[in-house]
Amino acid sequence: MIPATGIPFKRLLVRSLRSVDFNLHVILDPIRLALSGPQAMAMLLRSRPSAIFTTGGYVALPVLAAAAVLRIPVVMWDGNVVPGRSVRVTARLAGCLAVAFESTSRTLGRGRRPCFLTGTPIRDTGLVSRADARRALAIPPDDKLILIFGGSQAVRRFNSAVSEALPRLVGRARVIHITGDAGYDEAVAGRDALSPEQRGRYRPEKFLADDMTLALAAADLVVGRAGSSTLAEVAAFGLPMVVVPYPHAAGHQQRNAEEMVRVGAARLVEDESFDADALLAAAAILDHPKEQAKMAEAARSLARPGAAAAVAELVLAAAERRPFPDAAHIEAVSRGPAAGVAE
């Protein structure tokens, strides 16, 4: 995806640790990691960056180790309530930390390095109004809209729940359903099996790129996973949510989801419990306007639409070798409207 944008892109030999079984990668991964160290050093010597921005983790180790030798300042951002073990290790190589959740700073912010609460950088939420988004998506002003997406991981459970609940679900609200490649044909078949009056109320999509902003701006309820970016965008748009945490990946999404539930912005449904009945129960939130409004207000209380600008200020300060802004300033920037950074 990155080369297609025209952004210069270079890949290290090190790869993400996706294998859990004993196989050839158990031998190859340490070799890749060892060879990536000199590779990263050569890249940094050629490009001489003023600063490095990283999300940490195992794959960042070669670059951050080389940056430490070359005294290149590093800003690291982490988006989970509970940072992973490799993130905690790489945080020691950063000169400045930025986090999405306040509780994360108690884990990563130990020691002398500053740690700022910025939230999660997201797309600009001010690009389109709700009314314009609904016109673009052909959603009548008074109709309720549910946006359903399971992310890239374990989307099959979402697709199965939608398929079973579909005739009843579209009787309660319009639905935009992001299926992924594998589930799209089945979703289209499900739409075609609906009555002619119902078909226009269900819109399956493989993926949404730029139109994701429109879908979020137009929605009344989101059903999805608990990735950091998903939760940040839902909060920025002030949407109630039914959150179904991805059950693996060291339980990061479970803790992320609990933060939304704690303030009243979301209902949590465990992955193994999410089925057609759970989805229909989620849709019932739209039958209770007071509860829906209360959840929306709670979501807005977590919103940090200016997170990208806040993180950018930290990276620019590091690049220019000047003191980092104070925490109150970064807090104000993150809470403000999404904005670009002046060149």
Describe this structure in words.
This protein has 343 residues and is of the alpha/beta class. It has 2 domains: 3-120 and 305-335, Rossmann fold, CATH 3.40.50.2000; 130-302, 3-Layer(aba) Sandwich (Rossmann fold), CATH 3.40.50.2000. It has helices at 24-47, 61-70, 85-91, 102-108, 130-136, 156-169, 180-192, 196-199, 211-218, 228-236, 252-262, 276-283, 289-302, 307-319, 327-335; strands spanning 52-54, 74-78, 96-99, 115-117, 145-149, 174-178, 202-205, 221-224, 241-243, 266-268. The strands form 2 sheets. The protein has a 6-stranded parallel beta sheet with strand order 7-6-5-8-9-10, with helices on both faces. The model is unreliable at 339-343 (pLDDT under 50).
Structural topology:
Elements: H1 24-47, E1 52-54, H2 61-70, E2 74-78, H3 85-91, E3 96-99, H4 102-108, E4 115-117, H5 130-136, E5 145-149, H6 156-169, E6 174-178, H7 180-192, H8 196-199, E7 202-205, H9 211-218, E8 221-224, H10 228-236, E9 241-243, H11 252-262, E10 266-268, H12 276-283, H13 289-302, H14 307-319, H15 327-335
Parallel strand pairs: 1-2, 2-3, 3-4, 5-6, 5-8, 6-7, 8-9, 9-10
The CATH homology group name of the largest domain: Glycogen Phosphorylase B
Residue-averaged pLDDT: 90
Task: Return the domain count.
Answer: 2
From the N-terminal CA to the C-terminal CA, the straight-line distance is 25 Å
CATH-scheme architecture of the largest domain: 3-Layer(aba) Sandwich
Share of helix among residues? 40-55%
What is the name of the CATH topology of the largest domain? Rossmann fold
Poorly predicted sequence stretches spanning 5 or more consecutive residues: 339-343
Tally of extended strands? 10
Biggest sheet features:
6 strands, parallel
Compute the number of helices: 15
Q: Which sequence of SSEs, written as H and E, runs from N to C?
A: HEHEHEHEHEHEHHEHEHEHEHHHH
Radius of gyration: 22 Å
Sheet with the most strands: spatial strand order = 7-6-5-8-9-10
Structure class: alpha/beta
